[in-house]
Amino acid sequence: MTPNAASASSGPSRRSFLASTAVATAAVAGGMPLLSACGGSDSGSRDGTTSDKDAKKILPAYVASNVVTPDIPSKNGSSMGFTAKLDVDTLKTSVAKKLGKGGKVTIMSPFWGSPPKQNNPYYTSMNDLIGVDVQWRNQDGNTYDQKLGAVLASSDVPDVVVVPGWNMMGKIPSAIISKFADLGPYLSGDKVKEYPNLAAIPSDAWQRSIFGGKLMGLPMPAPSVPTIAPLYRQDIFDKEGYEVPQSADEFMALCKDITNARAKRWACGDMKWTAFNTFSVLGGGEKPLWWNLVDGKLINRIETQEYLEAIEWTRKLFAAGVVHPDFELGKSQATDPAPKFAAGEFLIWNNNIVNWYGQQASQATQNPDFKVWGMDIWGHDGGDPTLYAANPAGIFAFVNKKASESVIRDVLAVANVTAAPYGTKEWMMTNYGVEGTHYTIKDGIPVKNDKGNNEVLNAYVMVASPAATTAHPDLPDYTKAMVEWERRMGGFTKKSAFWGLQITEPSRYTNLANDFEQLEDDIIRGRKKISDMQQAVSDWKNKGGDKLRDWYKKILDENGSAAN
Amino acid sequence: MSHSTVPRSRAEAKKKSPTQTPAASGGTTGPGDQKASGKLSLRLRFRRDRVLLLMTLPVVLLVLVFNYIPILGNVIAFQEYDPYISDNGVISILNSPFVGLENFQRIFEDSAFWNAVQNTLILFFLQLVLFFPIPILVALLINSVVRPRVRAVAQAVLYLPHFFSWVLVIAVFQQLFGGAGVLSQLLRENGYDGINIMTNPDTFPLLITAQSVWKDAGWGIIVFLAALASVSPDLYEAAAMDGAGRWRRMWHVTLPALRPVIALLLVLRVGDALTVGFEQILLQRDAVGPGAGEVLDTFVWWNGVRNQDFSYAAAAGLVKGVISLGLVLAANKVAHLMGEQGVYKK
């Protein structure tokens, strides 16, 4: 799976929250012309969304790729899994001839971990394979939102900028619309067939890449299952005889059982995202997913009882002292939790599901007993959970509007290689690097070495990816468990009203809800009270929340609801 | 400067021809001429000092380009500025609509802003009381060390933390004083509850001050040491001859020598009162929440850079600038009243 490289060593960052996400078809019914100014008088001209009908005119044609049949096909919006042994010698070629024309392309992208040197063997051999001289400008992924605005406001925008959906706050969406190039002339309809791997990207991922009525993004498709999994140390659970909890109360009791601060052991990390899932809070990192139609009225998640309950439950975990103290630092966490998880300082860590594999792989050599597994998401009352679907693409690469046609063609050449499906030479190079340098074949299985783990990380996988794929030839059991987890959780997953649409809010409302995440964290850590949240919600309504509700209602009336 | 500013002797002074203009004599004039220069016309003074003026020109240009011209950008505080209209910032400014004082009105109604002001002032006063005197004390201490080798080593050790990045300093503090840090574990091993100093909003200002002291108190002694070095040993000897003890020598010789420097730094510090350590606080803001961790600079950063509400942030920055200016003027006035030079004098 592609995003795994990105977050192997990061904490449960914002990216983990969303990096994962949907498949299945865009269920946006109805159809109205381009909603270029549907907010009425108090909105600019860049807000709104693009209806299904208009989207059809600009979406690239879909041509499925049949390089390797998945062992576990996608179901309920999960990714597809490949568990069979990969024969490295008979890999297929999906890019018949080098499309790159040797130009230079600068790409700014979020990076989780320590970036390798420019011109390292991974970058140079990828560039050789593509035929483009890609220069990476990697930026810290956890604080990417703080740099993006400044870079986009400057006159020195790189040729390509990678923007995760959860960083599209404030005026970023309007910046995307005014600063980046329309890729429609190169990709719409049959034109995409020049780039067969891009043509194999599912249409709903492309639909999410439409900004301001134009096809602008090169998407990273994602499963629609909310893929924050409560990961736990199965080896220690087995040794101590702990049982995997099935309800909020059981979880709390287990945590109290586990915690022994004197022995430097705590039960869990910050479980907020798991709480949102177990309490059925509307969600996804993007604000349009916070809305849903309840009894004919649009409700934002911050107005719901479930939201308050989830926060309160997480607060109790902190108050009970079962959370590792490092997590009290919130987002500013000075230290990486991964080594503490590996050391058994805490046993349960909600994290992107890709880290299920990532944590296991990173400990494989020095810690043979280490075994991480994922808990199924429970319903808070012990019943089945109700989960809300995440969007079918969460990360996009955009091309600078000022880029010449040759640069755009070179970027598409890059994307055509990085989007190569599992089982091809291009996939292998993108995800594992060069044989002998970054990985070695042991018993027919590619295993990354330290150089591979340091260099083959983020970067190229951020540009465009094949349909959501989970494939870890070195740990097939984990691949299977992860895909099955997604398939099971996908069975409990519903779509909310605006699922699958790329919506740009009117600029005067974009910052309205920015402070809620901070407030959640303040309450959870005991610095603010639930009543402060209720006050904030009523302020939000007065300051424009109710108007925003009307604005969304119009979009809903014109496009229909995606909810199921 | 190679030119002598004061005639070395009466004879040298006499050599100057009375008809020669001061500028032609090369360089500034001695104190004796100051009265006369007051009467000279502006043009004459320009002519006289043209060499000096030429020499300052590059710096003036730099200040103009990098400090004064950007000030014009503050106009966005009165606009609803959209930086993404154009690639050129100037064009973006020209095309953004004016909204008058709306942003300022929003600021004055924004409780988050006043919270930031309050936190900033608390930190400032705390640092003034707890941080400011420490470099002076350390400088006095170092100055009293006689053996040069011990002194050099001590100075090096004290300067070193200044060169560590804040990220590193905070990580070290976290390892020592965090909830799972050395101190907490030590307490737990001995049967007490652990304490998490790093995430306690109530003691946050003290934590910030302690970090600043650890990192920069050593660096701060440099200016004081320089001032101490300029005190003539004769004064100490004379005082000792008169029977002054250690403390009296410090009170009557050392401290008066330091007084102008202390006053100058104090005025400068007050001018910077609302700037209390952006990087250090931004890194720890989330650990205690904005309630305790938001200061004016992080407020501006958060609203401008992160939320892209540049106009709002610019307005907040302007308010900060105006308050800072008032503080500098007031502090300078106080310095004058105390008989010190301060930052400038009319």
UniProtKB/TrEMBL annotation, chain A:
Pfam family, one: SBP_bac_8
SUPFAM superfamilies: Periplasmic binding protein-like II
Keyword Oxidoreductase: no
UniProt keyword list: Signal, Transport
Superkingdom assignment: Bacteria
Cellular component, GO annotation: cell envelope
Gene3D superfamilies: Periplasmic binding protein-like II
PROSITE patterns in the record: TAT
Keyword Zinc found: no
Places the protein is found: Cell envelope
PANTHER family assigned to the protein according to its UniProt record, in alphabetical order: ARABINOSE-BINDING PROTEIN-RELATED, SN-GLYCEROL-3-PHOSPHATE-BINDING PERIPLASMIC PROTEIN UGPB
Membership in a protein family: Belongs to the bacterial solute-binding protein 1 family.
Protein name per Swiss-Prot or TrEMBL: Tat pathway signal sequence domain protein
Organism listed in the record: Streptomyces dysideae
TrEMBL record, chain B:
Entry keywords, A to Z: ATP-binding, Cell membrane, Membrane, Nucleotide-binding, Transmembrane, Transmembrane helix, Transport
Domain ABC transmembrane type-1 as annotated: residue spans: 117-331
Disordered as annotated region, ranges: 1-37
Topology within the bilayer: Multi-pass membrane protein
Membrane-spanning intervals of the chain: 51-71, 121-146, 158-177, 217-236, 257-278, 310-331
Localization, UniProt: Cell membrane
GO molecular function, one term: ATP binding
Annotated family: Belongs to the binding-protein-dependent transport system permease family.
Lineage of the species this protein comes from: Bacteria, Bacillati, Actinomycetota, Actinomycetes, Kitasatosporales
Organism, scientific name: Streptomyces dysideae
Any one GO cellular component localisation term in the record: plasma membrane
Domain of life of the organism encoding this protein: Bacteria
GO terms (BP aspect): transmembrane transport
Name by which UniProt lists this protein: Polysaccharide ABC transporter ATP-binding protein
Pfam families: BPD_transp_1
